[in-house]
């Protein structure tokens, strides 16, 4: 599609909506302007709804998503964390109600020595989101923003609670709820971690959006693996082959990977099924205590994907690098390092063990 020419002075809602309705792609600045109007409360509910529906109907582009991310981060509460930092997160929306695989993988990576800045929220399409299960495990989520870096130094992991850092999302809450359909906003969470990760591992259940998310990460100079199970899971899954988009040196390389090819047994969705926060927290502790099985397989595979994303110096095929990552993840569990990372996190946030 051709790019709609930017106005000479500034965009307007009629300009933006007319472009989208006619099938024209927005420029990154125009998309950023629209998101800025939404995030500052200057857009009406009708304008927000019209924008989200028209954008979704046309089909988002990398430039448009990047513009939305620019504005969302510009309106987020600031957080300054230095050094390498890794996020492991999924978009949600697969409606399979699996256990909290990315949360467990984050703890394993912390135990393996990676510095984790996890961005997450409460459950949306499952019974227990990352925030829900972490609270159940004793991690306090209301840690003041200026103390999150100290928590990271103490435990190698910290949590950026999305609803704390992105209060401006409240301006879109009513239109999103009343629309009741997925929009671009459903994919913004993994792209808008306020800690600005240097590397990310992102599961995306939407086949069309996954490569676009990878494109945004490439534009922003972030190393990443974006992946999707061919059965629709927003995880690097053992239940089916995976489609993978690796982001490295500003470029995106697409490939496929099947865990059975490196000897990991095929699981079923039922093997990974979760429940409420209490149930999922029990599974977390079992995995960290060394219980083997399909859940552990999925956790070490996702942890390996994150470690691959973070290790920009590693060479070899994706499968070869993942095998190295799996070994690191398994050592982190079997040595007790992953469990100690959780215990240090609980202690650092001031919650009772």
Automatic annotation (TrEMBL):
InterPro entries: Anthranilate_Pribosyl_Tfrase (IPR005940), Glycosyl_Trfase_fam3 (IPR000312), Glycosyl_Trfase_fam3_N_dom (IPR017459), Glycosyl_Trfase_fam3_N_dom_sf (IPR036320), Nuc_phospho_transferase (IPR035902). One of its GO terms (biological process) is L-tryptophan biosynthetic process. Mg(2+) 2 binds at residues 234-235. SUPFAM superfamilies: Nucleoside phosphorylase/phosphoribosyltransferase catalytic domain, Nucleoside phosphorylase/phosphoribosyltransferase N-terminal domain. GO terms for molecular function: anthranilate phosphoribosyltransferase activity; magnesium ion binding. Anthranilate 1 binds at residues 90, 121. Pathway: Amino-acid biosynthesis; L-tryptophan biosynthesis; L-tryptophan from chorismate: step 2/5. It comes from the Bacteria. Mg(2+) 1 binds at residues 102, 235. Anthranilate 2 binds at residue 176. One of its GO terms (cellular component) is cytosol. Its cofactor is Mg(2+). Belongs to the anthranilate phosphoribosyltransferase family. In the C-terminal section; belongs to the anthranilate phosphoribosyltransferase family. Catalyzes the transfer of the phosphoribosyl group of 5-phosphorylribose-1-pyrophosphate (PRPP) to anthranilate to yield N-(5'-phosphoribosyl)-anthranilate (PRA). This is Anthranilate phosphoribosyltransferase. It comes from Paeniglutamicibacter cryotolerans. The lineage of its organism: Bacteria, Bacillati, Actinomycetota, Actinomycetes, Micrococcales.
């Amino acid at each position: 599609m051709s790019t709609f020419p930017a106005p000479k002075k500034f965009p307007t809602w009629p300009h933006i909506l007319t472009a989208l309705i006619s099938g024209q792609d927005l420029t990154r600045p125009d998309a950023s302007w629209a998101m800025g109007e939404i995030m500052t409360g200057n857009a009406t509910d009708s304008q927000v709804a019209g924008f989200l529906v028209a954008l979704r109907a046309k089909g988002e582009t990398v430039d448009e998503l990047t513009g939305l991310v620019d504005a969302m981060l510009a309106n987020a509460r600031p957080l300054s964390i230095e050094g390498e930092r890794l996020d492991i997160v999924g978009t949600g929306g697969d409606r399979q109600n699996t256990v909290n695989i990315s949360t467990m993988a984050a703890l394993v990576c912390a135990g393996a020595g990676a510095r984790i800045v996890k961005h997450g929220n409460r459950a949306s399409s499952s019974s227990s989101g990352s925030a829900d299960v972490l609270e159940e495990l004793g991690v306090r989520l209301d840690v003041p923003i200026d103390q999150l870096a100290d928590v990271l130094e103490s435990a190698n992991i910290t949590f950026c609670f999305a609803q704390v850092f992105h209060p401006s999302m409240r301006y879109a809450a009513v239109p999103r709820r009343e629309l009741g359909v997925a929009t671009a906003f459903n994919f913004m969470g993994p792209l808008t971690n306020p800690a600005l990760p240097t590397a990310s591992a992102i599961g995306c259940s939407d086949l069309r959006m996954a490569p676009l998310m990878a494109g945004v990460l490439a534009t922003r100079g972030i190393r990443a693996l974006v992946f999707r199970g061919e059965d629709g899971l927003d995880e690097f899954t053992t239940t089916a082959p995976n489609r993978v988009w690796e982001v490295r040196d500003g470029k995106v390389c697409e490939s496929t990977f099947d865990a059975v090819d490196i000897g990991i047994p095929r699981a079923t969705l039922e093997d990974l099924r979760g429940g409420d926060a209490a149930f999922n927290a029990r599974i977390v502790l079992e995995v960290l205590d060394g219980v083997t099985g399909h859940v552990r397989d999925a956790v070490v595979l996702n942890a390996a994907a994150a470690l691959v994303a973070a290790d920009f110096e590693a060479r070899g095929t994706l499968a070869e690098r993942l095998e190295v990552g799996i070994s690191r993840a398994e050592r982190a569990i079997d040595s007790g390092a992953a469990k100690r990372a959780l215990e240090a996190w609980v202690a650092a946030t001031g919650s009772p063990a």
